[in-house]
Fold this sequence. Notes:
42% of the residues lie in helices and 18% in strands. It is of the alpha/beta class.
Amino acid sequence: MKRGRLSRKTVIVGAGDVGGAFAYALLQSGIAERIVLVDVRREQAEGQASDLAHGLPFVPPVEVRAGSCDDYADAAVIVITAGARQKPGETRLDLLNRNILIINQIMDEIVASRSQAVIVVVTNPVDILTYAALKRTGWPRHRILGSGTVLDSARFRHMLSQHCGVDVRNVHAYIMGEHGDSEVPVWSMTHLAGLPMDTYCPTCRRCGDWAREREAIAAAVRNSAYHIIQAKGSTCYAIGLALVRIVGAVLRDECSVLTVSTRLEGEYGLKDVCLSVPCVVGQSGVLRLLEGRLREEERRALRASAAVLQKTMAEVSLTGEPG
């Protein structure tokens, strides 16, 4: 169901590397009318907003400023990039519990504001935190989505375009499942200008052993974030651009197909887990899920990816407190 016309106001919760990179990309896009940065470190949000505002003479008209949870009430989209960093001696599950506490607090503030915004969760592990946000609010699944594998799918397309020597805009490919190590490259839905990649590549003069190269491309996509983090400490620019794509689909009601993380309710034979599948995204968030015809090995891999997420959820408290 479409909402009435709201101001194209985007609130970014978390003014760190990812929030800042997204704000910078959104500022240049001309999509948003107002960009508000919110952070528990008010000075950080004010610094980012001032730095961005000094570039306003060079971009389409937009308001940018630091704000507070009071800004949730009339936002069209709220993007959550806030999260804790791992402390020395802290386990992965300890960190996850702390991030669940952060997400729950933010969601409580959003609910209290009576906001009608679409929520985009970016903080990792994005699939579990998207699920936690849905559980906390009790909202319908279409209103809260995760950035999911939109970036992974972009990396997949980029690497295939490099492999084939064609414009990345002519390569269509999807990563499904967890935004993480169990992600699933869906080769049955990968094509170049309508020609299936599994048909094109084995006959291409650029290609050697296609089966081996296919595995190498999938591994490169899966490990690319690790390489970037090792080289420069964090990833921020590409995810910032991916978020512009997601938020633009909502603000402009584009009905774009994006692999966002959403709660499955029987699709692909999976229930009560958030992971990425191709979804139609528009003004109200996830308008519908597209259930493609996967190969049997892809279905098995997707089930295995869901099992990884469900195992982790069983080990943590969705309140963020120790069980």
